Amino acid sequence: MAAAGKQVAAAGFKSSDSWRYMRGCSKVVCVGRNYADHITELENARPKQPFFFLKPSTSITKSLGKSESHVYRPAGVDLHYEVELAVIVGKTLRDLQAENEASAMWAIQGKSTIMRYAVAIDMTARNVQDEAKKKGLPWTIAKGFDTFLPMSRFIPKQAIPDPHNAHLWLSVNNEMRQSDSTKLMLFQIPRLLSDISKVMTLRRADIVLTGTPKGVGPVNTGDVMRAGIKVDGQDIEEGNIEISVKDREGSSYNFSET
Predict the structure, then answer these.
(1) pLDDT of amino acid 6
(2) How far apart are the C-alpha atoms of 21 and 34, rounded to whole Å?
């Protein structure tokens, strides 16, 4: 980890190294139910405080284009997409205070708490998750398969001066499915990092997914997903994702009721 951190800090760090660095993180923390309309579409209860869960770093996959990068759908899985803004943590955070939002944002951006951003697609085995929710079981299986976290290259934080005023989008086979502003987050990034860091230490290079807007839905084998982020109406090139869906072969996994 220390070596990777030095590499990122070096002036010569290349964005093509983004995925290798990301997969070296100690954890991926995912914030759930952070957009009101998404809560409504899945008929979930609105949380009174940030709600989060973990994804393994082994779920991270490159997004080099539909012919080179793939999400592999396990047998029996109803596969759904969820586009999100990802925060790449820039330094160790423990018990971060965020009572004053303005000072918290200054602390985050002025002191390099956030190193970079990225666009991510939180792939979800929806039928697996639905069963887990009904039985009060963890969501780890539904979220944790290999390739279930396509990510863009690193986005310099200067490219997104206000992470609460950017526009996330995702299309399937060139049909727009998700398109909303990050200003609709119920809990903004300072509060998210604060609440997470009061439970678990966030280390340099850890990844925090900040929630998905409305429009989540299924993808099937052969579908092509594209996703990205806009600032002032302009796409940020480093944030673009293009990836296709293929069946997972050579695995004995097949979804069955727990």
Answers:
(1) 38
(2) 27
